[in-house]
Amino acid sequence: MNIPGWLWAPTLVLYAGLFLVDLAVVGRRPHIPSTAECLRWLGLYIGLALAFGAALWVFAGHEHGVEFFAGWVTEYSLSVDNLFVFILIMARFSVPRELQQSALMWGIVIALVLRAIFIALGAAVIARYSWVFYIFGAFLIWTAIKLASGGETDDDEYHENRLITVITRALPSTPDFHGSALGVLIDGKRLWTPMLVVLLALGTTDLLFALDSIPAIFGLTDEPYIVFAANVFALLGLRQLYFLLGDLLTRLVYLSIGLAVVLGFIGIKLILEALHTNTLSFVNDGQPLSVPVPSIAVSLGFIVTALVITAVASLLATRRAAVIGD
Fold it and tell me: What pLDDT is attached to residue 141?
């Protein structure tokens, strides 16, 4: 799939326009969104993602369309996992509820820029070194094992990364928020507000999650255009999901296991693809191995099935616990 520059340009303008509209809405009137408002925006973004995938299906072939949908569903499910940590970050920095929209929106923009850099680097490495799929596959399987054992989403407190710790100590800042402003002038001295640290915490924390999600989507498609599109549409609407789901996130008790199954499956698929195109001299004397590799349609079906089972099992488990508790 060779994407010409004339198609990349309007696509990027479209993405920028969507985020600018969202930023304008949030910036004009910081508030706590209602359920109806969240559903309207979420419906719009999901509809746009479906339309984009359908357009790819029609104009670029059904395989690329299925690749987008598989990547989008995977990235979206992993983004929901991010919301647990976002909630902890908001609590850690005591962000007022009415300012959380602005914090999330700008944090997501920072995350998208960092992901774009990560995707470009990943695409360049994959194009030159096909054996990197072995590394990606092993990393995803290791992450899946860690997730299944409760190593990530069960954390009940946020641990600042080194960058946030350094910035917090180095920058002169105010103890209180001043609306959504990043900096204020007090007694002739420019001081930063806690909002700056919150934005950086959200953006850099999302990048840490991208260390899992970007290799995962490259296991479904090696087309940077589709990888970036899936990430954009997964991040769009994440703010609405944050307010819409809220405490309901705690009911997804099997989310870690479900995501572990998805990441483990993609990790195995990556290793099978690496074997299928093997060039490493110490593996089968540098010759490719004729091994079956799940098709993209099978991969999409597996991912959707695993996530549906995860959601249903989680809701049944929490309902059963509530009944026993009563």
Answer: 94
- pLDDT at position 247 is 60
Do residues 240 and 42 touch, judged by C-beta distance below 8 A?
yes
Q: Determine the pLDDT at residue 154.
A: 43
The closest of 325, 323, 317, 304 to 251, measured between CA atoms, is: 317
Any bridge partners for residue 185, and if so which? 190
Cβ proximity of 41 and 243 under 8 Å: no
- Residue 304 near residue 318, CB atoms below 8 Å: no
Exposure string for 280-290, b = 16+ CB within 10 A, e = fewer: eeeeeeeeeee
How far apart CA 160 and CA 157 sit, in angstroms, is 10
Distances (CA, A) of 300 to 68, 178, 239, 257: 10, 45, 25, 18
pTM: 0.82
Residue 184, beta-bridge partner list: 191
